[in-house]
Amino acid sequence: LQGAMATAYTSRDLVEDYLRYKLLSRGVAWRFPPPPPSPPRQRNQVSSSSSSSPSRRSGTSHRDVQPDPCLAPPRVQVALRRAGDKLERRYRGNLSAHASALLLRADDGGRAALRRSLAVVREELFRDGVNWGRIVAMMELGGALSAEAGGAGQVDDIARWMEESLDSAPLQGWIEDNGGWVGRQQKCLLQV
């Protein structure tokens, strides 16, 4: 698992690790629920020679494998964690206030209201462009929201928002144009 993760990161992997790290630091255990099944059209695009992926055939995916606590996390995850921790120390009061305000609004309108609010936050955060600092700010806001959220359903919604944000065309394009998740970005993340 460690070797495979060193070369290919998915947004889901990064979000799950980041939120797990943030929540565990507050004594809360959480695990990203499995993604919903892909529509048939997408499954065929992924594997035209087989109706199921190798991980599905064996009944195990890399999600089912618990990370070994004795292994160090991949460098990109460490870089994201450090950059997020630095941002948290610098803006703790502001992040908590924003997280509380967003969750308070969501309490009035339920999970749909939370998703709408998160979409507005994403648009505002990346309105003037994408950079590593804004990506880390989004991750840290997601961590702060998750720490403030009362129910696992809200944390799952926040995690999906973070994953969808990282997978969006503007962010995905910018990340790829700037070296991807592996390489010099680790140095950039540590300078955030």
Can you walk through the features of this model?
The chain is mostly helical and 192 residues long. The chain has a domain at 76-192: Blc2-like (Apoptosis Regulator Bcl-x). It is 69% helix and 0% strand. It contains 9 helices and no strands. The chain has helices at 2-7, 11-24, 40-46, 54-58, 75-125, 132-148, 152-167, 169-177, 185-191. Helix 2 runs antiparallel to helix 7. The chain is globular and about 45 Å long.
Percent in helix: 55-70%
In whole angstroms, the N-to-C terminal distance is 28 Å
Question: Please, how many helices?
Answer: 9
Tell me the overall shape: globular
Oligomer: single chain
Coarse structural class: mainly alpha
| CATH arch. level architecture of the domain at 76-192 | Orthogonal Bundle
CATH-defined fold name of the domain at 76-192: Apoptosis Regulator Bcl-x
- Summarize model confidence as the mean pLDDT: 76
Uncertain residue ranges: 1-7, 42-66
CATH-level-4 superfamily name of the domain at 76-192: Blc2-like
* Main β sheet profile: none
Q: What is the top-level CATH class of the domain at 76-192?
A: Mainly Alpha
Characterize this entry briefly.
The protein is mainly α and about 190 residues long.
Main attributes of the structure:
globular, Apoptosis Regulator Bcl-x, 69% helix, single chain, 192 residues, disordered N terminus
Task: Write the topology of this structure.
Elements: H1 2-7, H2 11-24, H3 40-46, H4 54-58, H5 75-125, H6 132-148, H7 152-167, H8 169-177, H9 185-191
Helix pairs in contact: 2-6, 2-7, 5-6, 5-7, 5-9, 6-7
